[in-house]
Amino acid sequence: MLTEVLPVDPASIARAAAVLRAGGLVAFPTETVYGLGANALDSGAVARIFAAKGRPPTNPVIVHVAAKSQVGQVVAAWPQLAEILAQRFWPGPLTLVLPKRAEVPDVVTAGGPTVAVRIPAHAAALSLLRAAGVPVAAPSANRSNRLSPTCAAHVLRDLDGHLDLLLDGGPTLGGIESTVVDVTTTPPRLLRPGLLSAGDLEAVVGSLQRPGTSVTERALPSPGMLPRHYAPRTPLICVEGDGQTVFDALLASGLRVGLLRFGGDGTTGVATRTLANDPAAAAAQLYAVLHELDDRNLERIVVALPPDADGWLAIRDRLHRASS
Ligand code: TXA
Ligand code: MG
Asked: CB of 301 within 8 A of CB of 236?
């Protein structure tokens, strides 16, 4: 192991904050997935995130702050809708896209006029952000296009030696990334479904433009919507229904095949995993299970998709991206 890994305690938080202020890279847990953080106002530090991840410069990163009072450091406007959503859902897995301040370097926003910002609901992340005293740009702490990390071992597997410090806060509880909403438009636009469900958002904002519902939407360069993202190395095939027919056919053709399903009869073979038949519980385990299947030297992973229902939107989205 090349990267220094520290448990979450006051001394480590102070160390990590100093690393961030000095322009270094710190991986830290949030309630969704682990982030790879750098001082968002230091373009050189943020450029190191892109280098470490192999992330294309066209994909902007999320800025994390400790409190609403800090948002003004990065955003140039704070519409009523942002206030309502922040009141209701922050700290939490909701990322708001807003007009950016000139001080935010282009590398953070991919040269665009907006910045994505959120307050994570995780004690260690909040302590780190408070101690650092600067807004922290942090994409998920994985190589670009790979599965997001939900524990310290996942971070090291992709990025060991490419960051200065890793705060190990144990497994993350949420398991999938935050929901990204553009609040510069009316009605607001869902850019990436995530841990906070679209239904919960709509209960507060009324209507929400959904991704992929119009041609213009699909044409927009919203990088989180690149078709291939969050993918394991093993080719992954999504099927509706229980997946058994496809699984059996692939096995019969002599391939080493894994199967992932939701609910069902709980049958477990060597490479069969059953996730909870509940979106939140399944999300918490999703990446950990995909990482695990990906490590089993399989030639295919068959995923029996959960129902095409609103509550499963984010999980179906991640699985489809993992398969394309
Ligand atoms: O849960 C999360 O959101 C995690 C934790 C670490 O906070 N972070 C995360 O970051 O998933 P990342 O970089 O893997 O995903 C950022 C998403 C991408 O879909 C990106 O396109 C979108 O946010 N995004 C960032 N800035 C944006 C902007 N200005 N406009 C539109 N989308 C933006
Ligand atoms: Mg990511």
From this structure: yes
Ligand 1, residues 61, 89, 155: which to mutate, most atoms within 8 A of Cβ?
61
The residue contributing the CA closest to ligand 1 atom 20 is 224
How many whole angstroms from its chain centre is CA 44?
A: 23
Output the residue whose Cα is nearest ligand 1's atom 29. 115
Mutate to test the pocket of ligand 1, among 49, 58, 62, 220 (most ligand atoms within 8 A of CB): 62
Residues 61-79: tens digit of each pLDDT: 999 999 999 999 999 999 9
User: pTM score, two decimals?
Assistant: 0.94
Q: Which are the contacts of 4, defined by CB distance < 8 A and separation ≥ 6?
A: 164, 165, 166
Alpha helices in the chain, H assignment, sequence order: 10-21, 43-53, 80-89, 106-109, 123-132, 152-159, 198-205, 215-219, 244-252, 279-294, 313-323
Give the nearest ligand 1 atom to 118 CA: 7
